[in-house]
Amino acid sequence: MKLxxxxxxxxxxRKSFQYVVAIVGNLVAYTCGxxxxxxxxxxxxxxxxxxxxxxxxxxxEESWIGSLLPIGAAIGPFFAGVAADKIGRKNSLLLAIxxxxxxxxxxxxxxxxxxxLILRVLFGLGVGVVFTVLPMYIGEIADDDVRGQLGSFMxxxxxxxxxxxxxxxxYTDIKTFNFICLAVPVLFLVLFFxxxxxxxxxxxxxxxxxxxxxxxxxxxxxxxxxxxxELEDIKKNVxxxxxxKAGFMDLFATKGLTKAFIISLSLVFFQQFSGINVIIFYAxxxxxxxxSTLPPEISAIIIGIVQILSSGATPILVERxxxxxxxxxxxxxxxxxxxxxxxxxxLLERGDDVSNISWLPIASLISFIxxxxxxxxxxxxxxxxxxxxxxxxxxxxxxxxxxxxxxxFLITKYFASLADVIQxxxxxxxxxxxxxxAANFVLLYLPxxxxxxxxxxxxxxxx
Length: 463
Description:
Elements: H1 13-25, H2 27-37, H3 39-47, H4 59-86, H5 89-109, H6 113-141, H7 147-168, H8 174-195, H9 200-205, H10 209-220, H11 228-243, H12 255-272, H13 276-281, H14 283-290, H15 296-310, H16 313-321, H17 323-350, H18 360-374, H19 379-387, H20 390-445, H21 454-462
């Protein structure tokens, strides 16, 4: 998952409306964050004495509730790519919010496991569409000099949503929590529909130049004359993109593109097999199992806050140190953090007295989140964006995102079953070995892409 904090600057009147659009648009990213963190407070309640379920939740059912969101999210990008071109970026995002509204409403009244399974798939479909279309929309409506800042809003809002789930979920009943969660997607639906323009790129692509001009004038707070030059540039870019459209097999057209695809898939493989989704989805359960002196819900809130704060360093450090070094530091740091956590669980499972080191689980996971946010959280996606030329970037992004979510499903679905066989100490030990593998992969196979042109990167990959 990418995690950034934007570096804010005073924006001119030309750009102020773009910030408003980005904030309104990212209410849907906030909703994604809520759904990603939803299981952490809600699954303990479904297992508790006040559970609304008519039957007791089994471990297998629990794992399915936790893991079905990634399955929906793996399917979502394929729908999103078609929808974004057919009905537009704006309408695709408006459509994407509908599954969230349905799912939160279902969750408020659900009394059977089947309903919770269905709503988790709906969450996933919405997440898959948002993760594909929202960056595309923001990238197309933003000025060049604020595109990075506005693009970073997405992961900031996702992290806010996660933290909201961790903070509000434990202290409200299931019905109340899900009704509260409904407020944000409904607000997004109203504001985005009435006040936010369609992408001028899509409007040019759809042969609607007059609407594109009006959209750009609104986004730039300018006149027809002031946006004329940019409108011509958009037309050229759209024509070039349509002329060089590529399909899946074009990813294997050259040695360099094949290498780029393998590197992208490998980075998201190591991202997922670091165990990040286990920590996000089951934060409360992990802390409860660790027997930390802090209440599990408080520990989960701390993790959410750390995610927000630690993300701020990445945009600054990546320009100074490069992506390769940050990914290497991230992998080594995650290895050490998870090794310590695995050792703690080993002592706990052996029956040793761990009261003197009961602070260790929260310290280990805080350090894990910090180094994850510095590297393997955001940077696999940033590297992928630099490895591919524009004509294959869309298909590469869709395939990589789907593969990422499928791997996320495997981890979240089978974590509990694996923990029954090798204990939690074995699971976190295994995650630490994958992180060690990630460090070796970065050291041996990943080229530095920071500061290099697309042509230079392709030359390196083709060697």
